[in-house]
């Protein structure tokens, strides 16, 4: 079941003895975690609450805990983090475990213990005996990252509940800057909520001021400067990234992916594809596709292909040390600016 359904069931229905929370969306993980603690009226320093990092703690110690009766209460809540033996992961220095004892417990759990496995990955190793047993004995809570449309709906509902009003431009920019990531968006929304105070109107300028750009988004600005022939601005942005500790090879790689996106968008536009279809085909944020469409239509496919080939060549030159890496990038910016201005 998904996280929202699980949270409602945890609040309202009798608890199962074993759960496994599968997925990498940190915000949903935290929501589920809080639901368990609230339902059992347990705080993290409570004697009836324990958590184990199974990359460091052997399963035998976990079993001692889950097989113990609660202290002056009805239930004991145990969180088992990083159960690597349920996945294909093989961490260094991890404890050796007798998983047969765990399998026996999964077959016959203690009724007063609520055991929750937190599996921070996309999928488990379905071939393992212990995984098969867990899936039979436990309730699954899915906390995988939501699809873009679901994240958008969730945020819009949260914003409405908070009585905030985003302009269309502000929301699109906020969604873009947070990479359509629910965890990142909810974190940044906390800042916006505090900033808003009694003024519940959120403008594009407020979003720009409060939500930081990722490296990819900074390189997006750099790409725009390069493609508009603004060499001086592009070189300033490049220098700023170097000062922030970013590597030329990484900047070049991201720029290469940006130009590849423009080329792909241009090709799809040529056969009549629209923004939504292009985003779906390329599996790219729709707002990013919108910006790419605005840029791509200014260029011939031949020009974009030429720039992409040059960036591939620059990547090879940087990796093989044929020239100073910063000089390679600077020459590309200057050469491209001259090409654009013609």
TrEMBL record:
Q: Does the keyword Glycosyltransferase apply?
A: no
- The residue ranges of the DNA polymerase III delta subunit-like C-terminal domain are 216-335
Q: Does the keyword Phosphoprotein apply?
A: no
Catalyses:
DNA(n) + a 2'-deoxyribonucleoside 5'-triphosphate = DNA(n+1) + diphosphate
Q: Per UniProt, which keywords does this protein have?
A: DNA replication, DNA-directed DNA polymerase, Nucleotidyltransferase, Transferase
Task: Indicate the enzyme's highest-level EC class.
Answer: transferase
Enumerate the Gene Ontology biological process terms: DNA-templated DNA replication
Q: Provide the DNA polymerase III delta N-terminal domain boundaries.
A: 19-143
* Its EC number(s): 2.7.7.7
Regarding protein family, the annotation reads: Belongs to the DNA polymerase HolA subunit family.
Q: Which PANTHER family match?
A: DNA POLYMERASE III SUBUNIT DELTA (PTHR34388:SF1)
Q: What is the protein's name according to its record?
A: DNA polymerase III subunit delta
Q: What organism does the UniProt record list as the source? A: Candidatus Enterococcus avicola
